[in-house]
Design a protein that fits this description.
The chain has 249 residues and is of the alpha/beta class. It is built from 10 helices and 7 strands. The protein has a 5-stranded parallel beta sheet, with helices on both faces. Helix 8 (177-200) links the parallel strand 6 (162-166) and strand 7.
Length: 249
């Protein structure tokens, strides 16, 4: 009996040591475009929803690492796919971190991507707004979603943990309603397809459409599509709700 007890101790000790010393904190990686980078309505990279989420995790003493350096203003889906395939590297505190390493270590990934693809087609980024027929637009949205699906498959090749996908808002609500309504169906269709992709690949989807529709002060600059601090806070709130209800024990 004593020998059996000793054997259990010998076998169990390494497991106990591992459980006591393993990093239980959250490694948070923000991926995507200018929204993930935190660009404000006046063209500057500032404090966005990813920073707010990191602050929240830190306030719970759960954050061990956070970076948004892989999020780049102007990025389209294919740009991020290329970065992963090229294994892009960044430097944090004097240490080189590759994108594949970051994905493999990540406990939470937030992803904002595809808006530049859509907005470019619609001419929103340059404010040279053009509108095609609904069939052509939906076909283009389907192409964008297909690229996003390819990206998600690639990310999940390295990351087995939680991924939060942020949906789109209508950036023209501050303009004349007829302009806004013309692209509204496109945004809603894109969000619906994003939800389907999220369900298919077991992602969490954040729908921010209604929040931006109901709050004009979320988009204070009439010639810019990026949110105010209040807009970013609204996105943050929905992400934190998912983290609290679905991710954090």
């Amino acid at each position: 009996m004593k020998k059996l007890f000793a054997l259990i101790l010998i076998i169990g000790l390494p497991i106990m040591i591992y459980l006591l010393t393993v990093d239980h904190g959250i490694y948070y990686v923000a991926l995507g475009d200018s929204l993930a980078a935190g660009q404000n309505p006046y063209g500057k990279i500032s404090y966005g929803y990813t920073d707010n989420v990191a602050d929240y995790l830190d306030s719970l003493n759960k954050l061990t690492f956070y970076t948004k350096q892989f999020a780049v203003s102007g990025y389209r889906t294919t740009d991020l796919i290329k970065d992963i395939n090229d294994n892009k590297s960044i430097e944090v505190d004097g240490k080189k971190i590759t994108l594949k390493q970051a994905l493999a270590k990540a406990d939470i990934i937030t992803l904002s991507i595809g808006a530049n693809d859509l907005f470019y087609k619609l001419g929103i980024n340059s404010m040279d707004i053009t509108f095609q027929d609904d069939i052509e637009l939906k076909k283009y949205v389907d192409e964008v979603i297909l690229d996003i699906e390819k990206l998600i498959i690639l990310i999940k090749k390295y990351c087995m943990e939680d991924i939060i996908l942020v949906g789109y808002y209508n950036p023209l609500w501050h303009m004349k309603k007829d302009f806004a309504k013309q692209i509204d169906n496109v945004i809603l269709y894109a969000n619906n397809e994003m939800k389907k992709v999220s369900n298919k690949y077991d992602l969490y989807f954040v729908d921010v459409y209604k929040q931006f529709e109901q709050n004009s002060d979320f988009l204070p600059n009439p010639i810019d599509i990026h949110p105010s601090a209040k807009g970013y806070a609204a996105i943050t709130e929905k992400i934190i709700k998912i983290i609290n209800e679905k991710i954090i024990d």
